[in-house]
Amino acid sequence: MNVHLWGVFAALFFFFFEGRLVDGNKPKKQRPYGCISLLGMEGGGIRDSQISASSVQYGLLGLERWGPELARLNNKGIKGIKAWTADSRDRNPWIE
Questions:
Q1: 39 lies in a domain?
Q2: How far apart are CA 60 and CA 14, in angstroms?
Q3: Is the distance from CB of 84 to CB of 92 less than 8 angstroms?
Q4: Is 30 a domain residue?
């Protein structure tokens, strides 16, 4: 194998496998440059009262509610209620 091809092979190997061989084949998680905290919709900088929607879906007997405050990024939710859902009759749903 000539020197040029060996260099290409070595570069590709380290590009694809760097950090995976040491930590049980898991890539290292790195934060994007400049991100030091969660923002608005994920971190709560935007309050629930500031989020509005065209409508809200309610469950059987109105005991469950899929309100706009559930539209947060990476929301884990509770027991089947995990995201905002517009009413099924809403023909032009929006959230802001």
A1: no
A2: 55
A3: no
A4: no
Cα–Cα distance measured from residue 6 to residue 8, given in angstroms and rounded to the nearest whole number = 5
The pLDDT-based confidence of 38 (bands split at 50, 70, 90) is confident
Cα distance from N-terminal residue to C-terminal residue, the chain = 59
Range of the domain at 65: 45-96
> Does pTM top 0.85 for this prediction?
no
Q: Is residue 6 part of a domain?
A: no
Neighbouring C-beta atoms of residue 85, cutoff 10 Å: 21
Identify whether 1 is part of a domain. Answer: no
Confidence of residue 54 (pLDDT cuts 50, 70, 90): very high
Count of alpha carbons within 13 angstroms of residue 30, beta-carbon side:
6
Query: What is the number of domains present in the chain?
Result: 1
Answer yes or no: is pLDDT of 3 > 90.
no
